[in-house]
What does this fold into?
Amino acid sequence: MAFAGSERAGDPADVPVVIKVLIAGGFGVGKTTLVGSVSEIRPLRTEEPLSEPSTGVDVLAGVERKSTTTVALDFGRITIRENLVVYLFGTPGQERFWFMWDELTSGALGAIVLADTRRLADCFPSVDYFERRNIPFVLAVNCFEGARCYEPAAVRSAVDLGEDIPLVMCDARQRASGKEVLIALVKHSLETMQRQRDHAEWATAP
Amino acid sequence: MPSTNDRWLDEEAGPVVRPYALTRGRTRPSGERLDLIAIITAVRGARTNMVGLDPEHRSLLRLCRLPMSVADLAADLDLPVGVIRILLGDLRERSLINVHNPIPPARLPDPRILQEVVDGLRRL
It folds into this structure.
């Protein structure tokens, strides 16, 4: 789908502002469901050379860039207004595709880490990833039917989540609920950026 | 050589290589790597200069008459992102497209844009 606008392509004023949000979390935690409930979702295929250095597999030495594997990503877009669009990318859950994350996270506004209380440990690697890189994120606990509901404080403590990281209980199938998670992330990113800006001003004050 | 037992090459990994016939075997684009949400626009008059271009190049130019992201182009043409990047690289080399890299959120010209996003999400 193209952006609305005139055919005066090339005029910088017509170039849309695009915002990238990642949806991370373990395999089967509801990432696809969440992207689908809040946006117009489409499958996106990307592909990575098998000899990508960060795989840590040396046996492919000598066949650099000759083989490629395809990885499916969830991709959604939300049009806020003409020339302002939010793109959602569901990160591949399998750990072997983690090397793709660096590209996905580059320039991202932030991430939603989805968690399932029945398999809470599955979200730890994502939480670590965003914490270490200082990428703003929120933890969204997808309350599956039949799963025991925990108090947010109990989840926060089990994940050892920083006090400044928002935790939201959600139902990824519900559009209204998914929207709240997204709003929580955008507000958190906004506050984080504001804090960093204030800090920078303070640090450079005479 | 990778064997068929290589852990990458199972069913989950999907089909290997075939779309790259479109790129004549190239797996890397020319020039800098295009961001998934870089916005591509065809330059004015690009469509009068399509001699020697493949049908996929032409489809891309047609789609890019209006600003399009790399990810949208890949989804619209149902081709892997890597193939789209290579084809766009060809078009860029021939100066048929403009590439607008996304602005990192911290460098948005106006912080009110994010507040606008919050308000827009509420209205959804």
